[in-house]
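Q: Here's a chain of 446 amino acids. Please give me its 3D structure as tokens.
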Amino acid sequence: MKSFRLLPVLCLFLITAGTKPARADLKSWLDRPEPDYQWELTETVHMLGCDIFRLKLVSQVWQGMQWNHDLVVFAPKDAAPTDQILLLNEGGSANPRGYPYGMLLAAKIKAPCAMLLGIPNQPLFDGKKEDALIAETFVKYLETGDESWPLLFPMVKSVIKSMDALQAFSEKHLSKKVERFILTGGSKRGWNTYLAAASDPRVSAIAPMVFDSLNMALQLPHQKEIYGGYSRMIDDYTSRGLVPMPDTPAAKRLWSWVDPWFYRQRLTMPKLILAGTNDPFWNTDALNLYWDGLPENKWIAYIPNAGHSLNEKSVKTGQSDRNRAIDTLCAFVRWQLTGTPMPTLTWRHDDTADGWSRLTVTASQAPKSATLWAATATSRDFRESTWQPQTLEIPADGKITALVPKPATGGQAFYIDCGFSMEELTSHFCTQLRVVAPSAAASSAK
């Protein structure tokens, strides 16, 4: 896959973040004994050909507080035995109204899957939740020097202990003992997915969703440059003085512990990155700041006209659904479970002699469809843009090419999406996207 080298930016990264980041503190937290760890099966439900098991899990004690979780397993009765399981880490607690989603995932992957809930345990510290809670714990670390404070540490450990529980549970209640885990989760749970995968060899594949912020030392200045400030979606961090990153050794240690970029050499397992093209948390081209640094066995799935929820809004009807994201995720999981080779893409962004932007992509297997998705904006901010599709021809030699005229004003972004069949499912794997502005100096992913 084409590399987009950013040497001046890389130099900035090495200066601001250092070349030898510490990782010991997350590891030491994970290695710490947890005498309170326990699990029990509290409920079994049989629903529409699926056995549903609800477990109560105590993962640890953190800052004097016991962390409690619901861990729900969905096992289709006709599923073939497998030693791998899809594990989704989520917030909240178990509710039967949420069971159909777990049943849907299990039916589509034709195998058991599990949902770990209560990531993180919240609210805490005067009602704080989600990013406000994470920011609070980062500030606590910077104020006290107590290295157990960052909330990502217990979040990761919760996933690790849920894997322990699932292995023990599967020996008695599933057709085969679980040995390996395919991890997924969205937003900060996507963040958690990366860190857990880097911390435990039982993770065989990952599918982080809507966490497009690896290599934070570059992402934040890039966001400020494009938006003229930081996204309002990260106000919990900017308001606490965490963004921009304080220029202190403690702050640099903190980011080196929690930024998955620093663990990238451990992320050798298959990786499917799912991102929305209109996600207000991140820059549209955020992936270009870390894609080259990730080890191979990696795929991108951009969901067009979708925000942080991955609900795709149809250009034709205006209706929204998550079918593209769900089917792509489930096809990816099915490829892991069956061990059949996945299709791969190689691509190149360049320019023609007469000034057009060109994107060429070749697939290892013939795709069933190829689509150019493009959007325009008055600047390089595409959060409110509508992405328009254009069907592309798939030549006999498999080399798919799209030509895009450069904008006279504003900005333009584009990528190619290839659809592949995995039995009855259709997955969508994409190229990196490129942002082009009238000035050549303002282009990215080139």
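Q: Can you summarize the key feature?
A: Residues 1-24 have pLDDT under 50 and may be disordered.
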